[in-house]
Design brief:
The structure is a single chain. The chain has one domain: Translation Initiation Factor IF3, CATH 3.30.110.70. It is elongated. The protein contains two helices and four strands.
């Protein structure tokens, strides 16, 4: 499965557009991580636990988007984008979406 943020894949031709596909996940922060983040805020620097949480969330959203594309018979997803939203004070959604296509 080819995944790209562009509207075309060099050397390939889109022969069929299957439509919008998406994958999302909602994750909640952990109280212990919030305490550590608060302490890190005092001295500065990267909050690695949050970096890891967001990276895992993005990967899960991409995996779910790919699964939906495969169910439609796609072999590529073009114009991939990400969106985030806060669901509640400690939980955020990450959404990956794009256009499922068949390329040759």
């Amino acid at each position: 499965m080819i995944i790209t943020t562009t509207d075309r894949i060099e050397g390939k031709r889109v022969v069929k557009t299957l439509g919008l596909v998406r994958g999302n996940t909602i994750r909640c922060r952990h109280l212990g991580n919030d305490i550590m983040a608060g302490l890190k805020n005092l001295v500065g620097g990267e909050i690695t636990n949050y970096t890891k949480l967001l990276a895992e969330s993005r990967e899960q959203a991409i995996d779910r988007m790919i699964e939906e594309a495969q169910k439609l018979g796609a072999n590529a997803v073009i114009m991939v984008r990400f969106a985030t939203s806060e669901v509640m004070s400690c939980a955020s959604e990450i959404l990956a979406y794009g256009t499922a296509v068949v390329i040759e």
